[in-house]
């Protein structure tokens, strides 16, 4: 039985894929946020010259 064209088979696919996509989006946003602090930590940061490759990607 389908409600507005949405079948149970679609739900079994869409719910896990939707959760995966939301999780990937949040993880990408956290990575983007953390790159603002790259090489600025007293413990892990070093003296990085302008144009030099960062210590972690």
Automatic annotation (TrEMBL):
Tree of life domain: Eukaryota
GO CC field: mitochondrion
InterPro entries in the cross-refs: NDUB1
Pfam families given in the database record: NADH_oxidored (PF08040)
Protein name: Uncharacterized protein LOC113504326
């Amino acid at each position: 039985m389908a409600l507005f064209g949405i079948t149970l088979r679609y739900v079994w696919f869409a719910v896990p894929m939707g959760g995966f996509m939301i999780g990937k989006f949040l993880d990408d946003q956290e990575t983007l946020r953390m790159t603002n602090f790259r090489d600025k930590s007293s413990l892990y940061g070093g003296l990085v010259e302008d144009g030099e490759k960062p210590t972690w990607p």
